[in-house]
Specification:
- The chain has 159 residues and is of the alpha/beta class.
- Strands 1-2-3-4 form a four-stranded parallel β-sheet.
- Helix 2 links the parallel strand 2 and strand 3.
- The chain is elongated, with a radius of gyration of 16 Å.
Length: 159
């Protein structure tokens, strides 16, 4: 089972302690608002999900689900601090992804067809088509490969 840990509750040398914790299990880390630690460095160190104080239960549930299925997760508030703003290249704001869009993104990146994703998520295939179009627009991706690459860059998936 995943372990929920607060960054400010790690004692002494945080990085070595974090390394020990991630070696022993699946770690979901909560960052206080004033913390400036790089979320992608935390993922690289073995943390499986990074959330921020105030993220709701929906974010926690998405993080837990991602971790339990072998992925990693950055909450919307954390992802927005990792370059989630429009940058002039046509990409939208990934922080605006809804929970169902994130679930759809993960299904697509896992190589599921739209029909398989629809069955898994309990929606129609047309709904998945709509989510996929919206995701390509928001993330500035032309195809599934680019969509998967952006999902990894933003921390929605691990490689």
């Amino acid at each position: 089972m995943p372990v929920l840990i607060r960054w400010d509750q790690l004692a002494g040398e945080r990085w070595p302690e974090l390394a020990d914790l991630t070696a022993d299990g699946l770690v979901l880390l909560v960052l206080p608002h004033e913390t400036t630690v790089a979320p992608l460095a935390l993922l690289a160190a073995g943390v499986r999900a990074v959330l921020r104080d105030g993220d709701g239960t929906d974010e926690l549930n998405l993080a837990r689900s991602a971790v339990l299925t072998g992925g990693s997760y950055l909450s919307r508030s954390v992802a927005s601090s990792v370059g989630g703003r429009p940058d002039g290249d046509g990409r939208g704001d990934p922080a605006s992804l809804g929970p169902r869009e994130v679930e759809t993104l993960r299904c697509i990146a896992q190589g599921l067809t739209h029909r398989q994703a629809a069955r898994r998520l309990g929606v129609t295939e047309q709904t998945i088509n709509t989510y996929a179009k919206r995701l390509r627009r928001k993330l500035g991706a032309a195809n599934k490969a680019e969509l998967t690459q952006r999902a990894v860059e933003l921390g929605y998936l691990s490689v």
